[in-house]
Design brief:
By secondary structure, the protein is mostly helical. The protein has helices at 2-25, 31-44, 54-58, 60-80, 83-90, 104-120, 130-141, 161-164, 173-185, 191-205, 238-248, 252-259, 288-295, 321-328, 330-341, 343-359, and strands spanning 266-267, 276-277, 298-300, 309-311, 318-319. Helix 12 (252-259) packs across helix 15. The protein starts with a helix and ends in a 21-residue tail after the last helix.
Length: 380
């Protein structure tokens, strides 16, 4: 019996040695994997105490060795199937171990990929996904309610059906799908940060102002989806605009400045019911929206769709009732006139109000002075 016990002990020692050897061979360059293995082992193993015959006690080394091997295999499987964790431990290129903290250069790489895709994917609408990317950033942020401190860009809850299916968000799946390959290439960035950064990128790449931006948004679950009705309805007029934007904390000047986003893109009958572009250059950011409001003659369009206006001269442009409200209301109109007269004034106010919009309700750990200006590729 003693010789059997010694034999079992030697076998147990061999198993332990094998486990040490196996552990040594596990990617020496990856501290993250060793930490995961140790934690798996520590959480899974239990120290055995012999309280019965020597045969039961002699099986302990086998159990320990099996658990070590299981920990190694489980840790490797977990890391392979969670690339974001591996990246978080090793950094973007593997040379820096520890928790990965993105730098401005990392966010510039994200920006550059979005810009590259905007240039390559020119088969959408007027030749650019830019306007719909801006709309995604706008709509994910414009749900904020200052009274309840709910909504806003923090959460990216439009990923879920209750909010993604709101009428005001019709068609935005195209923008979310456009950005999905970017998310896959940079899994460390949250959807909330990605959508807002992409909106900044789209504006800058369409020759708009440089928009200071900072990260710090977290993705949230379906329970945080906002109720329908928080975004503007183009069929309404000035009282509606003040109610919607006032809920977010914007004044008249800021309402008019944000409306300048209509310089980009167009409406679609299968989404909002309206149809047509606001300007002759829907993929370029300019103050033309305000110029056209002030200088063109507008009349009701005769068609089967909802009430909208068209320019008398070419009958190719459109304005919504909310657009026309900006020149019907004297307080709004004075800001329209300012922006129509000076593109630089518009760019400055548009930049400032967009920064405010994209940050509504976000519990940043950083300070406003930590905002970064990402370089447009058009400046290279």
């Amino acid at each position: 019996m003693a010789s059997v016990a010694r034999s079992c002990t030697r076998l147990g020692s061999s198993a332990t040695a094998a486990s040490r050897s196996c552990t040594t061979r596990t990617t020496a360059s990856s501290t993250a994997r060793r930490v995961c293995i140790r934690q798996t082992f520590q959480n899974s193993s239990r120290r055995g105490y012999a309280s019965g015959p020597s045969g039961a006690s002699s099986r302990t080394p086998y159990i320990v060795g099996a658990l070590v091997l299981a920990g190694i295999g489980g840790g490797a499987y977990y890391l392979r199937n969670n690339p974001s964790l591996s990246q978080a431990k090793e950094g973007t290129s593997g040379e820096t171990r520890g928790v990965f903290t993105p730098t401005k250069d990392d966010y510039q790489k994200v920006y550059n990929l979005v810009a590259s895709r905007l240039e390559e994917k020119d088969d959408y609408d007027d030749g650019s996904y830019g306007p719909i990317i801006v709309r995604l950033a706008w709509h994910c942020s414009g749900t904020y309610d200052k009274m309840t401190n709910t909504g806003g860009s923090n959460g990216a809850t439009m990923r879920f059906a209750p909010e993604g299916d709101h009428g005001a968000n019709a068609g935005l799946k195209a923008a979310r799908d456009f950005l999905e390959p970017v998310k896959q290439q940079f899994p460390w960035i949250t959807y909330s940060d990605l959508w807002t950064l992409a909106g900044v990128c789209a504006i800058q790449e369409m020759q708009g102002p440089v928009i200071p931006w900072r990260p710090g948004r977290a993705d949230r679950d379906v329970s945080m989806c906002t109720p329908d009705g928080r975004l503007p309805d183009g069929a309404k007029e000035q009282s509606h605009l003040r109610a919607i934007f006032g809920r977010m904390g914007f004044d008249d000047r800021e309402i008019v400045a944000l409306s300048g986003a209509h310089a980009m893109g167009r409406c679609h009958t299968d989404r909002s019911g309206f149809e047509g572009p606001w300007t002759f250059s829907p993929t370029v950011v300019t103050n033309d929206y305000y110029k056209l409001l002030m200088n063109e003659k507008w009349s009701f369009r005769k068609w089967d769709g909802p009430k909208q206006y068209q320019d008398v001269a070419s009958k190719s442009l459109m304005m919504l009732p909310t657009d026309m409200a900006l020149i019907k209301d004297k307080e709004f109109k004075k800001h329209v006139e300012r922006y129509a007269e000076d593109n630089d004034v518009f760019f400055k106010d548009f930049r400032d109000v967009l920064v405010k919009l994209l940050e509504l309700g976000v519990p940043f750990q950083s300070k406003p002075e930590d905002r970064m200006e990402l370089k447009p590729t058009t400046a290279e």
